[in-house]
Amino acid sequence: MQADTQRNAQKCQRRTGNLAEGVPQTSMRVQTKSIHATSPDTDFDLCDDTASEASPCGTASFFAHRETQQGVGVYRVHEDLVSEVTRLRKSFDHVQTSLDQSVTEGKQLREILDQVQHAREQSSTEIAQLRKQMNRLGSIDSVDKRLRKVEYNLSRMDGQVELLTKMQLAGTTSHHQEKAPSYPREKDHNMA
User: Fold this and answer.
1) Region (Disordered): which ranges (predicted)?
2) Closest to 47 (Cα-Cα) out of 20, 27, 65
3) Burial of 102: CB neighbours in 10 Å, binned 0-12, 13-18, 19+
4) Cα-only R_g, the chain
5) Max CA pair span of the chain
């Protein structure tokens, strides 16, 4: 019977090692009512004075305590997961809000771009109209320059015509004087 108890204690001892680190630890679960023991893994008291039932690896209350401890661990993991999910949701909401704002800003920029393009098209149309007017004004300006030149030439021609007219009048008078005899008229003598 003592051999069975020792074998059960060894099995219990093999199971208590830290499996994550691969380091077996000596279990203090084998105990008697007179020995007070503490778990090296958790620093929890493995003895429970209210325990009345003995088992090969400790008291029945140890297992109840261990289940409670595991329940607390699961609860903490659950709380951590809930906290992480909440944080991720907030982060997602923030990203979604930023994305929505970016989409809205993109739409606003597209509208502004459309307005600028429309204004550019209007400006191009107005510039084309102004060019036509400038070409007409340029034509008017060239006509005005030609008209001034004609007026200048006309005044020159008027001066030339006047000079020619004077020369012709002067020439006609001098031409009549050349045809007339230069001797005195005998009219007065014949009458006498």
Assistant:
1) 1-39, 169-192
2) 65
3) exposed
4) 65
5) 210
